[in-house]
Amino acid sequence: MKRSSDQIQLRKLYSRILNLLLPMTSAVMTWKGLMLMTNCRIPIIVLVSGGMADLNRGDLFFTSNFSDDPIHVGETMVFQVEGRGIPIIHRVIKLHKKVNGELKLLTKGDENPVDDRGLYPPGQEWLRRENIIGKVQGIFCCCAWETPY
Amino acid sequence: MADGDKKKATLPFGADEKPIKVDKWDGSAVKNALDDVAKKILTDKDCGYGYVENYVLMDTRLLICTVSVMFALAALVYDYLRPFPDSRPVLILCVISYFVLMGVLTVYTTFKEKNVILVAHQKDQAGVDPDNIWTVSSSLRRFDDMYTLHIAYEDGQTSQSREASVVKSVASWFDEEGTLLMDLFTQEVKSIHSSLLTEKKEK
Predict the structure, then answer these.
(1) Which of A4, A11, B31, B45 is close enough to B50 for a disulfide, judged by CB 3.0 to 4.6 Å?
(2) Å between A123 CA and nearest CA of chain B
(3) Residues B104-159 pLDDT 10s
(4) Where exactly are the transmembrane stretches of this chain (chain B) (predicted)?
(5) Across the interface, do B62 and A18 touch by the CB < 8 Å criterion?
């Protein structure tokens, strides 16, 4: 009698653990699914600090990173350089394309007086394709929850 | 032959047990309390009918969930070890498998498991004939006080099945403070049980 009540207790406990885990795993898998759909390491990103025209802290950005979607001057990109953990969202102001398809980009925050060269690691004058996380495709503004610093 | 009535549920249930008290406004606690008593009446060896609980239904659901969680963990770990573009194939496999399994889970709980809270086997006394199967399901809608208790009986030998249910307000079995009136509810369950067995004898 005790054994069967142990069995049911075990099952109830395990069932409860699973009920806790499943919403979390669903969130994680939805995120991974988005990554796959947009081909982008960070498909949705929150703006933490200002520096761009019309883009405010707390806005959500949807990014994509398709290789057949060429980058143009004037587009807003999300990029990451070595030494800086947080990705940066700025506009492309200069673009060089070599014959073999290799890209060199220069970016600048709209409201900054100078370009981003100061943000790139010493010795790096241009952003390369590997630094780009994705291109901003859409904005969901005014989410305004607490953003981590 | 009163084979079902041989082990009568003794009332009140285990006199040494504390009365069950729940928050009468908490629908889920109320349902769980009623479900637990109904299950105990059918399965308890000492003060119930002593039927053997069959865990297959619940275990299948637990299995589907476990496999889903494994896929999610695999995706997490693999993506961590080999960052994104490299992990693409594995991620695709895991994500698709996960959502397919979620679909399977939804179909399973909606159509197979439904509201079943217990599947129990009534073993034949002589150990010769196949078991009779008792399936108990219950439902209590959110913010509703009408509790439905449904018991289905499937005869092992004739494969005939009968079912009976009772739909009553939970107020019929709980007092003002939320204490479960064990005698009343036990009586309710036993009478459904007996009615299913006597129907069989008449046929």
Answers:
(1) B45
(2) 26
(3) 999 999 988 888 888 988 887 777 778 888 999 999 988 888 999 999 988 877 88
(4) 60-78, 90-111
(5) yes
Residue in A8, A11, A35 closest to B62 by CB = A11
From CA B77, how far away is CA B68, in angstroms rounded? 14
Nearest-angstrom CA–CA distance, B122 and B6: 12
Distances (CA, A) of A88 to A113, A133, A134, A139, B175: 16, 9, 11, 15, 62
**Inter-chain touch B83–A11, beta carbons under 8 Å:** no
B123 token code pair: 């073993």
**CA A23, CA B28: separation in Å to the nearest integer?**
19
Cα–Cα distance between A63 and A4 in angstroms, integer?
A: 53
Among all chains, which residue has been given the structure tokens 């398709």?
A66
Q: Which two tokens stand for residue B112?
A: 């197979």
**Tens digit of pLDDT for each residue in B49-83?**
888 888 898 999 999 999 999 999 999 999 888 88
- Other beta carbons less than 10 A from residue B93's beta carbon: 14
Interior angle at CA B10, CA B7 and CA B15, nearest 5: 145
